């Protein structure tokens, strides 16, 4: 199998591989958020004669998704690629709070992973939720992502979400986690 894979790679050429890896999403960091909502994505299909045919599919991502930061980004402002509209929507109070999952100690997750997210052992499947910093009273809508470990283990929060709830990027911050109502 390895020989077959190597042969395919060599026959396709480096540029073809990079293009294919990009189309399949292998060039994005693990756990990276999807493209912004309602973006059009083209994919290749093959017709009855074996010819490549381009098709378009609408891709929707949660409002907590954001574009990847530029490779040269080094400051919190440059790494936080959420838009002002996304930050305003995420910080907006919600009429009905969902189920409170508990409290967790959050640290800064990978600053190169865009969007508003919390990796936590408090959830077993990806879901939309909210984190609240009791010290500031500020909250943010986030995508809750499962993180292995006991429920008492700590969590990792995105740079954008930490900034939105008024938490230090270098400290451990206790946050309350709930599902979105």
Would you tell me which CATH topology of one domain applies? Barwin-like endoglucanases
The CATH superfamily of one domain appears as RlpA-like domain
| Percent in strands | 25-35%
- Write down the overall mean pLDDT: 74
- Total helical elements: 5
Record field, number of beta strands: 8
| SS-based class | alpha+beta
SSE pattern: HHEEHHEEEEEHE
CATH architecture of one domain: Beta Barrel
What general form does the structure show? globular
Q: N- to C-terminal separation?
A: 48 Å
Describe the model.
With 181 residues, the protein is α+β, with helices and mostly antiparallel strands. The chain has a domain at 76-179: Barwin-like endoglucanases (Beta Barrel), CATH 2.40.40.10. The chain is 22% helix and 29% strand. The strands form two sheets. The protein has a six-stranded mixed barrel. A two-stranded antiparallel sheet has the order 1-2. It is globular. Residues 1-60 have low confidence and may be disordered.
């Amino acid at each position: 199998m390895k020989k077959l894979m190597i042969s395919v790679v060599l026959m396709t050429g480096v540029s073809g591989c990079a293009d294919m890896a990009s189309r399949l999403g292998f060039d994005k960091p693990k756990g990276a958020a999807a493209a912004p909502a309602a973006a059009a994505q083209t994919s290749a299909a093959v017709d009855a004669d074996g010819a490549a045919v381009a098709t378009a599919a609408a891709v929707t991502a949660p409002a907590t998704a954001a574009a990847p930061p530029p490779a040269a980004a080094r400051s919190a402002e440059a790494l936080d690629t959420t838009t002002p509209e996304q930050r305003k929507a995420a910080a907006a109070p919600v009429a009905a709070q969902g189920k409170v999952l508990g409290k967790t100690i959050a640290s800064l997750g990978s600053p190169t992973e865009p969007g508003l997210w919390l990796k936590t052992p408090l959830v077993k499947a990806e879901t939309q939720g909210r984190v609240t910093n009791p010290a500031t009273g500020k909250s943010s809508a986030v995508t809750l992502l499962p993180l292995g470990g006991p429920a008492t283990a700590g969590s990792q929060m995105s740079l954008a979400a930490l900034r939105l709830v008024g938490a230090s990027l270098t400290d451990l911050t206790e946050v309350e986690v709930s599902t979105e109502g």
